[in-house]
Design brief:
single chain, alpha/beta, Hypothetical Protein Mth938, Chain: A, 5-stranded mixed beta sheet
Length: about 120
Amino acid sequence: MKPTLNGTKFASIDVGNERIKNDILIRLDSTVEKRKKNLSKEIFGTSHTLSLAEAEHIYEAGAEGLLIGGGQFGRVKLSPEAEEYFQERECQVEIYRTPKAIQRWNEVQGDWIGLFHVTC
């Protein structure tokens, strides 16, 4: 069963009863791990543009979609290469500001991956 997200504030996200103070990735098997944003930061100088390298790390075979919490102000976006990568795998991508993405995560059904940026 996928973890329930209970809220977010600048620089944190509540997963179940735990407050996490970094970006997170939720895998298909419901494990929650720290986002490897350096995979994008090394290429673009920021973690606000998702690189192909990070897309390759995030994607799991069988994923129907990727839900991205793009930050409190919605700054995260896909690079053209990452967008193409997900399209080729028929993996739908939805990006919202993190508070809205949390609501969507708790509603979405099926095999989805979640990536949540907790600052800007």
